[in-house]
Amino acid sequence: MSQDTADFVAKTGDTIEFTFTPQPNGFAFFAAATLTEEKQNGKHTPLTVTGNKTSFSLPQDDSFVQVAIVDGPVPENGTLTFTVNGGAGGTLWNNRPLSRMPGAFFGFGSAPAASA
What we know:
- With 116 residues, the protein is mainly β.
- It is built from no helices and 9 strands.
- Strands 1-9-6-3-4 form a 5-stranded mixed sheet, with no helix packed on it. The protein has a 4-stranded antiparallel sheet with strand order 5-2-7-8, with no helix packed on it.
- It is elongated, with a radius of gyration of 15 Å.
């Protein structure tokens, strides 16, 4: 993987927040997430999920986040977005059927700018 093929790119150490928005009146929810750091020989870190959100500090170079969304008793739709440091980010899926959505997203943390 590289910066060009990553699902999200930011500076190493930036705070990335994933937010799951279920369909209106749905039962689906964001149940769990883990962060895997490639530079640390695949170190896995469970992430705390609260209120359909999780956040983490972006490691340097390649990493990936796996998410677990529990679907309702009837297949539902949902949206998964991310922000960087509480600002601009992007949409990983937008009001899509949960049964067909990927659960792993690749990130790339570029080294922070050198301080003067």
